[in-house]
Amino acid sequence: MDVRDYYENQYDEKNRLFRDNANKVEYLTTVHFLDKFIPPNSRVLDACAGGGVYAFYLAEKGHQVTAGDFTPKHVEAMKANPKAHILADIRINNALDMGDFADDSFDAVLCFGALYHLMDADDRQKCVAECLRVTKAGGPAMFAYINRNGMYLDSITRGNGDIVSRVKLMKTGINEPFYGMDFGEADELFNGFDLDKIADIGVDGSRYPLATQLNNASDAEFAGFMDYHIATCQQPSIIGNSMHGLYIGIKK
What we know:
The protein has a seven-stranded mixed beta sheet with strand order 3-2-1-4-5-9-8, sandwiched between helices. By secondary structure, the protein is α/β, with parallel strands linked by helices. It contains twelve helices and nine strands. The longest helix has 17 residues, at 21-37.
């Protein structure tokens, strides 16, 4: 399945993080750790910005943000946003080849999407290498990825596919157009680079199996869940079953 076609014609990436409480878990957790690890007044590259949710958030926090995405629909949506002027640049971007940027160009780099779709291990290596190339030494590099266990559990919740397809998913991690990493695979990938790990996060934790309960929760109940989730989202038991993971390292 073509990744651009999926986002251009089949999926609304721009609005997914705010549809309901369950989807907000990923957003609220991510911005918590962005605020924690990106130094003030940083020059930031959001290499897979989607509709620009995190790019605009960081720009409003005072960072100088360049936002790029592989999908033209997303780039046009960011350019059409009334706040587009607060971004330093908006462009088509391929995280596998960012030759327009010099080495050590950015204080922090976000790669929130490319690793979801790279089926080939060499491409995943190339993506990480390219993101680190443009990150300054001492700066945070942040990589979102999908967990295979989370994909499997979600397929049961949704009733998608048969037993054979689920066995294939667990063996290969492939659920077109997505690739899910086996537990520990993120560490294996990033350990091959000059990167000091500072966090690995189960970004949405139990959000998928608890979606109905979260969406029916009162504001106080949801706030209480978020307190619990932020406190536990770096535990291995949470990471392994979370759909989305977030690996954060400091470039050596």
